[in-house]
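ARCHIVE RECORD
Type: protein–small molecule complex
Small molecule: coenzyme A
Source of inputs: curated submission
Record status: active
Notes field left blank by submitter.
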Amino acid sequence: MPERRLELNTPRLTMRPIIPADAVALFETLGDPHVMRFSVAGAHQSVADTAGWIEHGIRHQSAHGFAMYAVLRRCDGDIVGQCGLEVLADGRTEIGYRLRRDQWGRGYAAEAAKAWLDYGFSTLRLSRIVAMIEPGNRRSIRVAEKIGMQAGASETFHGIPVIAYFAEAPATPDGARSAIRTE
Ligand SMILES: CC(C)(COP(=O)(O)OP(=O)(O)OC[C@H]1O[C@@H](n2cnc3c(N)ncnc32)[C@H](O)[C@@H]1OP(=O)(O)O)[C@@H](O)C(=O)NCCC(=O)NCCS
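STRUCTURE (tokenized, with ligand):
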């Protein structure tokens, strides 16, 4: 699949594809048990785990033209977490976001995730984007709500009870869905 746009910008953030050199910086987020409390695989134990996660992301980018991207503050280039879209095993496309703990509470997650939703619908032409969120993950639920996602069905995801939040492509004026892809 051809490379699509390689950078997403918001007022305060830049998101770009992850590269192997990001492993140490992203381990600060992905190696933090508090950040990873609601992640099925748990916290990364070493920078090598994060390097493996990055390799997976690079393969995903090649296969689909999008992936989980690094989130950088525009003011100083600091990598503050990751956000993006990923195709699940069942074909649905999930939005994901994780920030370094010292960056929580600034609205960055909603800012980043909203940009991905817009990009997913307007450029990637997805019809539906989901987010599998554990009921106890109140911050994540609030982020999903803030970007306009709705609570869908309760289901089991990797053995864990979750609520499948979802957003759908905006309808066109004649009422038809504008999206042409159905992941
Ligand atoms: C989820 C996460 C990215 C949110 O980051 P953040 O910087 O706090 O997000 P935002 O500032 O954009 O918004 C958080 C919202 O949750 C609200 N919130 C914070 N703690 C809350 C709580 N305990 N209960 C309910 N809402 C809460 C905040 O007030 C804010 O809403 P507001 O803007 O209406 O006030 C961050 O907490 C994180 O990395 N968590 C670990 C990874 C994770 O769980 N990812 C999602 C997996 S589904």
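CURATOR ANNOTATION: Residues 37 and 45 are 13 Å apart (CA to CA).
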